Amino acid sequence: MKDIQRFLMILATVLLVSCGDEKKEQETITIGEEGTVERSTTANPTNTATDTAGTAAEGIERQDGFVQVNLTGNDQMQFNLKEIRVKAGETVRLTLKHVGQLPENAMGHNFVLLQKGTDIVDFATKAASASGNEYIPEDTDQVIVHTEMIGGGEETSIEFTAPEAGTYDFICSFPGHYIQMQGKFIVE
Ligand SMILES: [Cu+2]
């Protein structure tokens, strides 16, 4: 009799699956030998990406017919977004705001969206010598779109159509900045 009780207790693993429209959560309750209850909650894998990244939806607002991307750059050579997700063919309005104070010639920032497969280091090296053209190589076919270069306190916007699905890189092409100022532009 005692053995049966123990057997049942060990086997008393309750699996609760609650399904909502937006959220799926799996809660596992395991009752151990000494009656201890262990709970573990596992978020649905499909939600994990946005939950853990935290930045996925940050800075991005969907409005009627377009997606507004709010990108900032600071005096510490940092973009606020490491990842920007949009949908193919969607109209993207990207606003780059320089939230620092240093002038353009010392801490200029821009947003440069590169063609798929572009070698970032190679591109950035060419860009660094294009000081007369806001650090965009004049004859390049590797840039899909870019903003102007701005300094502290300034803001600039561009509008473009999201390219075909895939993962693209974006950088700031001010000399040396791409090392820290780069991210993924993901088109779904
Ligand atoms: Cu920069």
Automatic annotation (TrEMBL):
Keyword check for Electron transport: yes
Keywords from the UniProt entry: Copper, Electron transport, Metal-binding, Transport
Domain Blue (type 1) copper: 69-188
InterPro entries noted in UniProt: Azurin, BlueCu_1, BlueCu_1_BS, Cu-binding_ET, Cupredoxin
Domain of life: Bacteria
Keyword Translocase found: no
Region annotation Disordered: where it falls in the sequence: 33-54
Gene3D superfamilies: Cupredoxins - blue copper proteins (2.60.40.420)
GO molecular function annotation: copper ion binding; electron transfer activity
Record field: compositional bias (Low complexity): 41-54
PANTHER family assigned to the protein according to its UniProt record, in alphabetical order: AURACYANIN-B, OUTER MEMBRANE PROTEIN H.8
Protein name: Azurin
Source organism (scientific name): Salinimicrobium sediminis
